[in-house]
Amino acid sequence: SEETVTLMWSFVVSIYSIGGLLGSLSAGYLSVRFGRKKSMLIANIPALLSAALMGLSQLCGSYEMIVAGRLFSGVCGGLALNVHIMYAGESAPRKLRGLIAITASTAIGVGKFAGFALGLRELLGVEALWPILLAANALPALVQLLILPFFPDSPRYLLIDKKDKEGCIKAVKQLWGDSDHMAEIDDMMAEKEAICGENAKSVCDLFRDKAVRWQFITLFLVSSCMQLIGVNVV
């Protein structure tokens, strides 16, 4: 019936956010357990799986594959976005850190525009080609799988989480050149000493921490406004 089709269509659209929540909740654990770079590589697994499921859904005659593919795509988005911001911010020199971190928002904007453009009827938004459109997220995942292994891991992760000072210095030189970067390394050493012995904070601890209360409220309001501007409805 029409009501059932509408329900399933709504479920296909909204389950992406559920996957994004699952991916975001796992980002902290995976980024510490495997490192920033490996976590970003792991994020490509659900991306490729989602592309395969959605791309083959018409051939298999299964709308359930689209639902599962959207879920895995959301997991990839939630995981990759959070880990990317950590990796970019920790790998950039201090004077470029803000500029590098904002590339995540820029990439999201470019990706949305590319999705809208590819969805035009003149391109892939037709009945015969929509499986290719849904599987298009495999392309950036494959590019990252080929390129990212040549990059070093986050210097901060190597020094603080892995306690590998030599690896940290090697990563800093590979990322920032052969100049003297001991000031930045000393800052990371000071941070390591400051957090030594502290347990990882939970989400509840974040709510109770008065030191970041206003930053938390600001981010909460900005994120809420982003959900209310209508882009999701469109």
TrEMBL record:
Q: Where in the cell is it found?
A: Membrane
Q: What is its main location?
A: membrane
List the InterPro entries: GLUT, MFS_dom, MFS_sugar_transport-like, MFS_trans_sf, Sugar_transporter_CS
Q: Where is the Major facilitator superfamily (MFS) profile domain?
A: 1-234
PROSITE patterns annotated for this entry? MFS, SUGAR_TRANSPORT_2
Biological process, per Gene Ontology: D-glucose import; dehydroascorbic acid transport
Give the domain of life: Eukaryota
Q: Which UniProt keywords apply?
A: Membrane, Sugar transport, Transmembrane, Transmembrane helix, Transport
Pfam families reported in the protein's UniProt record: Sugar_tr (PF00083)
Write one Gene Ontology MF term: D-glucose transmembrane transporter activity
As for membrane topology, the entry says: Multi-pass membrane protein
Q: Which residues cross the membrane?
A: 6-29, 41-59, 65-87, 99-120, 132-151, 216-233
What's an example GO cellular component term for this entry?
plasma membrane
- Its protein name is Solute carrier family 2, facilitated glucose transporter member 5
Q: Which organism is it from?
A: Colius striatus
